[in-house]
Amino acid sequence: MITYSATKTISGTQLAGLLSASTSKPAPADSHRLQRILTNSNLLYTAWDADKLVGCVCGLNDKAYCCYLSLWVVRAAYNQRSIGDAFIQKIHHDLGTGISLVLLSDSQDALHYSELRFENVDSGFEDKRAF
């Protein structure tokens, strides 16, 4: 049974392990950089199968208008377990439905996010970072 938490903290090393077991690579698996992401995010949800980390979403939330989901990772073996749906339900439950959820996606994951009711928008801009 998958359990979810908005209070458990994880380390950059744990997140790097989760990234290496996923099909999506939204961030470099550099545990120091991942630790900075975790430390500076004000939103963190994790999914667990017993003591195994199987999913994580983190981001920045202004608590009034928008929540940017900067990292969304699910262990590949758990991709068909509705973990993404559960994350969205829990985030909306905790933040309220008046908060827009925003994320960047590569074309590989775009279909998945549209299945989770995210709309593709053309009104955004990005100044890409250098890794």
Low-confidence stretches: none
Mean of the pLDDT scores? 85
Q: Tell me the number of structural domains.
A: 1
What do we call the CATH homologous superfamily?
Answer: Gcn5-related N-acetyltransferase (GNAT)
Largest sheet data: 5 strands, mixed
* Count of DSSP H/I helices: 4
In whole angstroms, the N-to-C terminal distance is: 37 Å
GO molecular function: acyltransferase activity, transferring groups other than amino-acyl groups
Domain N-acetyltransferase: 28-91
InterPro entries: Acyl_CoA_acyltransferase, GNAT_dom
Organism: Lentilactobacillus parafarraginis F0439
Provide an overview of this structure.
With 131 residues, the chain is α+β, with helices and mostly antiparallel strands. It has one domain: Aminopeptidase (3-Layer(aba) Sandwich), CATH 3.40.630.30. It has helices at 12-20, 31-40, 83-95, 107-115, and strands spanning 2-5, 43-49, 52-61, 66-74, 100-102. A five-stranded mixed sheet has the order 1-2-3-4-5, sandwiched between helices. Strand 3 (52-61) and strand 4 (66-74) form a beta hairpin. Helix 1 (12-20) crosses helix 2 (31-40). The longest helix is centred in the last third of the chain and has 13 residues, at 83-95. The radius of gyration is 14 Å and the shape is globular. The mean pLDDT is 85. One of its GO terms (molecular function) is acyltransferase activity, transferring groups other than amino-acyl groups. Residues 28-91 form the N-acetyltransferase domain. Pfam families: Acetyltransf_1. This is N-acetyltransferase domain-containing protein.
